[in-house]
Specification:
By secondary structure, the chain is an alpha/beta fold. It has 2 domains: 2-132 and 299-366, Response regulator (Rossmann fold), CATH 3.40.50; 135-199 and 239-296, Rossmann fold (3-Layer(aba) Sandwich), CATH 3.40.50.2300. It is built from 12 helices and 15 strands. The strands form 4 sheets. Strands 2-1-3-4-5 form a 5-stranded parallel beta sheet. Strand 1, helix 2 and strand 2 form a beta-alpha-beta unit. The longest helix is centred in the first third of the chain and has 19 residues, at 2-20. The protein is elongated, with a radius of gyration of 25 Å. The two termini are 42 Å apart.
Length: 384
């Protein structure tokens, strides 16, 4: 099976590279691809190539050619050689790099345009456009959602880790005068105590005990019923917020959700939201939370893309590959609209563009995705 896959990859590369020597050079669109085609991350690189092959088939234009080159990952020497090879074969636009750590390296190639799947910065940067699902786009969608839900006391929670300053810099772009910012320790042992402070858990627990004592020595029916009701509670009193945005993912996100439930945050009164979700089904097994909301790309298009990819390649794609798919569509749209792509300014459209991941806008040289809001409910992802 491995031999068959290697042969298939070989033919894809031959298909891509043979097109570079087309006689219709002046009328063709050549696009470089920077991907780790060897080494530890070669599966990602191959997945990117498969994705672009699907995009080529959907576009159906034999004047569009991909030039894949092995750029490695965090390997400056390989990256520079790959870029130089792409230039020598006549392309002036490149899909990549994957990692934003390579941005400083590619900026020096000011005669090339790079469309990166990175989500670190939505702003056009020198010769780089990042089309990843940025935190800014997610927050815009969430703030709009919370406003429609008439939530006025939001707490934004994020961990004290290597990304804290990055998150802080993004939050500064928004008017958050009425929003509480709360940073927590990624250590679960410390986290629980911090969430207890946030939710005023100790006082609410004490409120319940004091309230129960008021009825313990009374024998009338009304007091007995009230005491029975109080016995069913864990705390008494509401928290001082009506919604939370948790900027975290994976097990860390689950730890925060568990701590909020442990401190008896009423899910009927407080709306739970998060970011950075790619329809991760493991969230279904976090049975302490009934419903959580988050902004994301189109679930319908995401599942459709995964299905087509699986039917063709008998494996599921890396999530980032759908961004590369849309990158090719964006480049092709620009090429057809402008005629020839000369600079990064050719992508500064006034109109919106629909892709697999959603709808793009490019206002003031900033990429914004119009995201849908989804909720997890009964082990399903439901568009809200």
């Amino acid at each position: 099976m491995k031999k068959v896959i290697l042969i298939f990859i070989y033919y894809i590369i031959i298909f891509f590279n043979s097109n570079v020597f087309s006689k219709e050079n002046n009328q063709s669109l050549k696009i470089g691809l920077l991907a780790p085609l060897t080494g530890e991350y070669k599966d990602l690189g191959n997945s990117l190539m498969y994705s672009l092959q699907l995009a080529l088939e959907e576009i159906g234009d034999d004047k569009v050619f991909i030039i894949p080159k092995d750029s490695g990952l965090n390997d400056k020497e390989k990256l520079n050689k790959a870029i130089q090879d792409i230039k020598s074969e006549g392309a002036n636009i490149v899909i990549g790099p994957i990692d934003n750590k390579d941005f400083n390296e590619v900026k020096k190639y000011n005669d090339l345009i790079f469309i990166s799947p990175s989500n670190m910065s939505p702003d056009f940067t020198n010769n780089i456009i990042s089309i990843g699902i940025s935190l800014e786009s997610q927050l815009i969608a969430l703030f709009d959602f919370l406003k429609k839900q008439k939530k006025k006391k939001t707490v934004i929670l994020f961990p004290k880790n290597q990304y804290a300053k990055f998150v802080e810099s993004k939050l500064k772009k928004f008017d958050l005068k009425k929003t509480k910012i709360f940073q927590y320790s990624p250590d679960p042992k410390i986290l629980t105590g911090e969430i207890e402070n946030l939710t005023n858990y100790t006082q609410r627990k004490r409120n319940l005990e004091l309230r129960k004592k008021m009825f313990e020595d009374k024998d009338d029916e009304q007091s007995t019923k009230e005491l029975e009701r109080l016995e069913q509670l864990y705390t008494l009193g509401n928290v001082n917020f009506d919604s939370v945005i948790i900027i975290d993912f994976g097990n860390n996100l689950k730890s925060v959700l568990t701590s909020l439930v442990y401190t008896d945050v009423n899910q009927k009164n407080v709306l739970f939201t998060t970011v950075n979700q790619w329809f991760d089904e493991s969230i279904f097994y976090e049975n302490t939370i009934k419903t959580i909301y988050y902004p994301s790309i189109s679930y319908k298009e995401f599942t459709k893309y995964n299905k087509i990819y699986y039917e063709k390649y008998s494996s599921y794609p890396n999530e980032i590959t759908i961004l590369a798919y849309d990158a090719l569509g964006l480049i092709y749209y620009t090429w057809k609209k402008v005629g020839k792509i000369n600079s990064i300014n050719d992508f500064n459209f006034s109109s919106k563009i629909k892709g697999k991941i959603g709808t793009f806008s490019f206002k003031n040289k900033t990429v914004t995705q119009e995201l849908n809001i989804y909720k997890t409910e009964n082990n399903k992802f439901i568009k809200f």
